[in-house]
Each structure stands twice: as C-alpha cells, then as structure tokens.
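EI: anyone free to look at a 136-residue chain?
SC: sure, send it
EI:
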Amino acid sequence: MLQAMNTGHDGSMSTVHANSPRDALYRIENMVMMANLNLPLKAIRMHVASALNLIVHIERMRDGIRRVQNITEIAGMEGDIITARELFTFRQRGGRSDGTIDSVFESTRLRPDFFPRAAHLGLGEELLGALGIGET
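SC: here you go
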C-alpha cells in the first residue's frame, strides 16, 4: 500500500482499522514492521509521512450510525515523530428524540499544508470555504 502511494501518482485511498488517526499511524507502522523488512522505525515513519496526506477517521456511534469523527492532515516529520494536524472534528451536542445523536462537524480553522496544491487545482476557494476561513 505504502509503495503504491509513494509512486508519484495522485489519488490513492486505503482503509485501516484503528481507534483514532494517531492509532492508524501506529497500526501502519506495526504492519510494516511485521513484514520483516528490517527497516529502522524512523525510515518507516518517513515513508508513512510521505505517503499519506489525510486520515479520515470514521466511527460507528451508539445510535448505530457511522460518522466521520476527524479529518487529520499528515504534516510531515518533526524529529522521529509523524506530525498530524486535525482539520475537522465531530462534536456531539446531545441526543434527539428519535434516538440519533445531535452533532456538528466543525472546522479547526487551520489552513492545511496542501492548500497551495488545492489552489493550483482550482479548489482553493472551496477548501477555504469548507474550513470557514477567508483568503489571506
């Protein structure tokens, strides 16, 4: 999966089962280590950080409905650690009379590192609108 994502072609997508975006990164690291490639952990992390742009974490809630919980940007490496920046987060406000969860999906209002690329593709205004921030 990581090799395919690092070939320079845009538009890869994959799934991994984990409890959070950070846990997804750990899970991917562990899967690479289980392949017995004898790569140092920092090399694995660098490969993961260069392959992934976003993690979309989905969870089945107590009402049985799956909802996006977070959209997290992978922002590169700081030392030996993969850095991640949450762009959107799910916030539960309570319950409704029909048993479903009353919630909102909120922007953290952080401009992602991939903004220049989105703007180059003509998606800059739409991205800023979704993030709830103006052009600066």
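EI: Strands lie at 54-60, 66-78, 81-95, 101-107.
SC: 👍
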